[in-house]
Design brief:
about 80 residues; 5 helices; about 55% helix; globular
Length: about 80
């Protein structure tokens, strides 16, 4: 087993997956509503869901990443409005 940290050091990769998702969150929040990427992320299917546990969405994962970082969702949304933050 090789730890992710050692692979990142060997490849020179600095960003983790969570940091990449949070960066994309900022990009998504600043893009216009007519962009397809934004529409897909906020699309809710009209069909009935199947039995069982609901599927985990990208937004659910990002909310957990934000909370893991010690921010509330509202604080994260205000920070994403400014690209430098």
């Amino acid at each position: 087993m090789v730890r992710n940290e050692s692979i990142r050091e060997q490849t020179g990769q600095e960003l983790s997956v969570q940091e990449g998702r949070l960066r994309w969150l900022g990009d998504e929040r600043r893009m216009s509503d007519d962009r397809i990427a934004k529409q897909v992320l906020h699309w809710v299917p009209e069909d009935r869901r199947k039995r069982g546990r609901p599927r985990i969405t990208w937004q659910h994962v990002v909310i957990k990443d934000v909370e893991k970082g010690g921010l509330s969702w509202e604080e994260a949304m205000s920070l994403t409005a400014d690209r430098r933050e």
